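Journal club prep — side note

Before the paper discussion, L.F. wants everyone to see what a predicted structure for a comparable chain looks like in token form. Sequence:
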Amino acid sequence: MRVLGIDPGYAIVGWGVVEYAGNRFAPVDFGAVTTAAGLPFEARLREVYDGVCEVIHRTRPEVLAIEKLFYQHNQTTVIGVAEARGVILLAAAQAGLPVYEYTPMQVKQAVTGYGKAVKKQVQEMTRILLHLPAVPKPDDTADALAMAITFCHTSANQLTRLTARGVGPI
């Protein structure tokens, strides 16, 4: 199964595609969609949308795993991230991808086995699981790969069983 993990944002959208088969992970591709701070916000959203659409078209994932929106102290930031998530979810819907959302704690638990792991522990375990020579940069990319791993650890078997029964995505 090919999974696209996304760490949403409007300045940087980390993305990572992981192939998962037989309890083994293989990185397919990863990177980041970046937008210039000087652009009008709607232009930044358009760049996020276009970038994610291009990644979906090029890598052909079967499912999208994305970070669930959580409250941040800066309301302006949370609103901007929510709007970026919206265009990312639109791109997934247009491509017919089922979407799975995970909290940061769920990602930490799935990747490291400890829900209160620090970011560096999650990134290092992501590197180890994917047999990468170094932790991917920017951090958003490593976070996106961890999101894809989380889907594989928590939801892939359930999706496979439902699809085999003809039920379709959750």
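L.F.'s comment for the group: Strands lie at 2-7, 12-21, 24-34, 63-67, 99-102. Keep this in mind when we get to the figures.
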